[in-house]
Here is the input.
Amino acid sequence: MLQSDVALLNEKVNAMSGDSDGDGVADLFDADNQTPKGVAVAGNGVALDSDGDGIPNYKDGDVFTPKGINVDETGMPRDSDMDGVPDHLDKEKNTPPGALVNFKGQTIANSGSLTNSTALLPSIYFKFNSATLSTSSYESLTAVARYLKENPKITIVIRGYSDPVGSESYNKALALRRAKAVKKALNEVFNVKGNRLQTVAIGENDKLSDNYKINRRVDFKLK
Here is the structure.
């Protein structure tokens, strides 16, 4: 056997046995041999993308985005006007900043008082397994704070929800953290007195939609 043949054979053997990124897929068969350490990959060595939105799971803020939904660079459904309602559910995609919207993202005219109902207040949505408020959440909370300031005798219940991923007890605790995060923001950012804000965890019960993203929310009810 010629020396060049031996070298070529060794190269092939090394390629078959080598795994540059340590993902368990040999370099010869690895379509991406620079996968970050610890990232779950498919059989071809490419980082998993469970919902097929083009954002690998390890970078995806919502690994269960419904098929065909337009997402941002973090894998979250786009919310172009940042009103708290994602574009694919938003009937009015150009809502002005801070506008009061319903669950369809449609602007609600300010008639001076909403004393009789909180049904028109926007829900606050969260990323998967998170109780951290997003920038768009603060836009929505502006409307909630305005409602409370226009109705100073009103006390509301902040109700936290979750999707069904995980145990019921964990989801209930997560839902409570979400409700408390909203209460803290209303109190510390918008100066709404804490004694007007009660928190409660609903958890994965009373789901609003089969869309997991919609169920990762906080909404409001008159006490």
